Amino acid sequence: MVLVFLWLIVAVIVGTFVLSFGFLKKPTGRDRNLQNPILQTQRIKLNREQQLNSLPPGGMGWPLIRNMWSFVRAYKSQIPESFINNLKRRYGETGIYKTNLFRNPSIIVCSPELCRKVLTDDEQFQLGYPLSSLVLDGMPSDYISGSGHKRFHRLTTSSLTRNEPLSLHIGSVEEIVTNALEECSKMKEPILFFHEMNKIAFKVIMTMFLGYATDDTVIASMEKSFTDLFSGLFCTPINIPGFAYHKAVKARKKLVKEIQGVLGEKRERKRNDPNSKIGLIDVIREAEDSKREKLDEEYIIIILVIFLIAGRETSGRAATWATMYLHHHPHVLQKAKEEQEKIMKRRPSSQKGLTLSEIKQMKYLSQVIDETLRRRTNVFALFREAKNDTHLNGYFIPKGWKVLVWQSAVHMEPEIYPNPKEFLPSRWDGFKPKVGAFLPFGAGSSTCPGAGLAKLVISIFLHCFIRNYKLEQLNPGGPVNYLPCSPDPADNCPAGIIKIR
User: Fold this and answer.
1) Which H, E and C letters describe 336-366, residue by residue?
2) Which residue of 350, 396, 414, 452 is most buried, as measured by CB atoms within 10 A?
């Protein structure tokens, strides 16, 4: 402590000397050079070069194609984790690497600690998704990444995480799933199971949004328009007949008209019956923009499209893979089925349908879902962008660079998940991964507000399926399409749905 105090006295004396004599001293040639604007510019450039030299290890790839070739090659190889593993072998286990992907200089983070830091630091990082104008055209800019986005996120999180709204929709979700599976089981020809799951998820999301199930013909038409729109999100934006993007533009216009129709129907119902069932649309209509004004219907339509993209893709995909994994692992399927039967035996004879309490008792089924979400992460990375020049783990990150939180690599880390390629729901028995090690729905202020809803829908679907049906795949173990962003069965899983009771 005495030594520190002595150093403080020395610092004060030196500072006084500089202040007393430094300003009085006649400028030397060196001082005049420091005031030279050209030399100042050169000094700033030198400082910037020094900062850039402290970027994380990695490489920016070849001219024009940058690192996209190695990325695409890894994800086409059926071993997507090889992309990150190659970075680790070449540059060491730093958990952070520089690269150039999707035409942007980027930083990849793939350790739990760094993933958590990026996702929870709203001061330095903002959303950085390259979302297509097909979705966001007409959306207020602050609802994409600014203060409006945070308000909207809090609103939807609040409306989707309270127990009461979720429990109100369990009956309608169970009815949709039961009817759809019954219809599939009656098909004489094999169905494309992945497509059917997406249709079910689409209808569920629309029902949750409106508060009631609308006409099946309207839903089918909307789902077709949405599928065409979604297919164009990852295409080169060439708006000429014959290109997928042009087809997506037309699909968006049609989908908007169809949504306007069901929203008009919703208003009419509300007018005739003020006590009609509340949907997410009713909550969103009460939201305000940055000017404290109610949202225009145009914005509500865009919000619904975003919900459909997130909800249909997460629920439909996870339900598909969970069902496939269960039927590929008979002992897991049997254990999950026994749990469901025990829950049903405890049910009062007067009870009709599932309850939220029963779903919370599905401990093993929850482990099956978590293992599916780990093994088949919905997207390979979460996109963020540096709001300012900043530092992470001692490395420099320039303003405007993308920061890719590669959670799919974390989910396949052997030190966290031994034998990561194996489907082992039992690994979750008593296991709680450290923060940042399990990110199927993100983290921080941008955690997916529909995470609880997605797991609820998947639980209801699996409850109905494993008790009453079995899956007979025509091509078990077929290849997987990991691109453009999510793991899907390449053949869409042709299969028969066989009723067993």
Assistant:
1) HHHHHHHHHHCCCCCCCCCCHHHHHCCHHHH
2) 396
CA pair distance 225, 199, nearest whole angstrom: 12
Give the Cα separation of 296 and 288 in Å (integer). Answer: 10
Token pair, residue 158, equals 């609040």
Q: Is 441 within 8 Å of 451 (Cβ atoms)? A: yes
Instruction: List beta partners, residue 469.
Output: 499
Please tell me whether the peptide bond between 484 and the residue prior to it is cis, using omega within 30 degrees of 0.
yes
8 Å CB contact between 57 and 91: yes
Look at residue 246 and tell me whether its pLDDT is greater than 80.
yes
Q: Could you give the percent of the chain with pLDDT greater than 70? A: 80
Phi first, then psi: give them for residue 277, nearest 5 degrees: -60, 135
pLDDT at site 457 = 92
Q: Where are the beta strands (DSSP E) in 91-228?
A: 96-101, 104-109, 125-127, 191-192
Closest listed residue to residue 379, CA positions, set 319, 439, 421, 450: 439
**CA distance to 33, 283, 318, 320, 455, per residue, from 373 (Å):** 61, 29, 7, 11, 10
Burial annotation 245-260 (CB, 10 A radius, 16+ → b, else e) = bbbbbebbebbbebbe
* 8 A C-beta contact, residue 337 and residue 391: no
Cβ-contact 416, 410 below 8 angstroms: yes
* Of 372, 383, 489, 417, the residue nearest 78 (C-alpha): 489
Distance CA 220, CA 294 (A): 30
Pairing of strands 488-489, 480-481: antiparallel
Assess contact for 363 and 380: CB atoms under 8 A.
no
> Nearest 5°: phi and psi at 202?
-60, -45
The answer to whether the annotation marks 448 as part of a ligand binding site is yes
Indicate the pTM of the whole model. 0.84
d(CA 240, CA 219): 28
Q: Tokens in use for 391?
A: 């530092």
Residue 363's pLDDT is what? Answer: 97
Question: Tokens in use for 442?
Answer: 């993100």
Q: Considering Cα of 206, then 207, then 212, then 215, what sign does the dihedral take?
A: positive
Distance (Å, whole) CA 263 – CA 255: 12
Considering only CA atoms, which of 217, 227, 196, 199 is closest in space to residue 305? 227
- CB-side neighbour CA atoms (13 Å) of 159: 20
Q: CA–CA separation, 467 vs 54, rounded Å? A: 57
* Rounded Cα gap, residues 483 and 293, in angstroms: 40
Q: Is 493 exposed, middle or buried (0-12, 13-18, 19+ CB in 10 A)?
A: buried
CB contact at 8 A, 330 and 338? no
Paired with 496 in beta bridges are 472
Q: What's the start-to-end Cα distance of the chain, in Å?
A: 80
Class of domain 67-212+277-499: mainly alpha
